[in-house]
Amino acid sequence: MSVPCVAVERERGEAVRERLADADALDGDHEIAVDGDTIYIPVVDPEAVPADLGAAIVECDAAERDRPRTPGEILGYEPSLERLGDIVIVDEDDDERAREIADAVMASDVPCETVLNRASPIEGELRVRRWDVLAGDGTETVHREYGHEFLLDVADVYFSPRLATERHRVIEQVEPGETVIDMFAGVGPYAVPMATRGADVVACDLNERAVAYLRQNAARNGVSDRVTAIAGDVREIANEYADAADRLVMNLPHSADAFLDTAIALAGDECVLHYYDIQHEDDPFGPGRRAIRAAAGDAYEVVVETERVVRSYAPHEYNVCLDVRLTRA
Question: What percentage of the chain carries pLDDT values higher than 90?
Fold first, then answer.
């Protein structure tokens, strides 16, 4: 098929291709052609080619580029997939269908080292689950999120890539110089970016493996000096960090209310609390509001600044967040 191309000497080919890409002029649907010492680079619009390239624009036969092959194209239907670093996660009760999907993922152009299937719900105090390894041989990966890297093992720690947008929303509120206490920190998806924004972060988690990854992730992202990682129950540090927090993160849906007394003890004179909850759709925010006000008592004025549905959790249940400002009375 004949398409407009920029004709350029072979030695200038890569530099010109980069300039065309920067100008949004590159035609990604057709292959670059080579004839002797000349390279023909397809462009979408000759008018978009930078004038200072000093290259001729000609019509040239260029083959159509093969598009990336997706699992859906291989299977004939779109499977439900979740990406976490170089791991692809499926959620299938039918083992035969799960393995069919895994084979298609590995045969596709999806960058992937391992395919896992959920073998259990989230279980236990540490909120981890069991996995079936359908392809590959490991459960450790590096997840990248808004410019940060998080090393983790999904078999040892809880981590949800689906919460990336919500985490970023909260992280963007942090100001340099704040003291933040992340009460249930995991591998650091709140703590590390908050430290990057200039906060001093105390990050606590009951899962010792998660805290080990948290320390590594603070180092990977260059914020070890601003992250204090503590393995243990956050209630055990309430006295040491009493009245210290400018901001508290309570991402422990289902049971965060049991730690509100600790949150009030940690809060400074002015403190923003990010409280996560799971409640019925009929009243998703009311139980959280009432629990926070009951814990604060007469010690703090409580102002709910944001009520946000993060995602649907189960039929008729929502995972929600309340951003609450506590001001000492």
Answer: 77
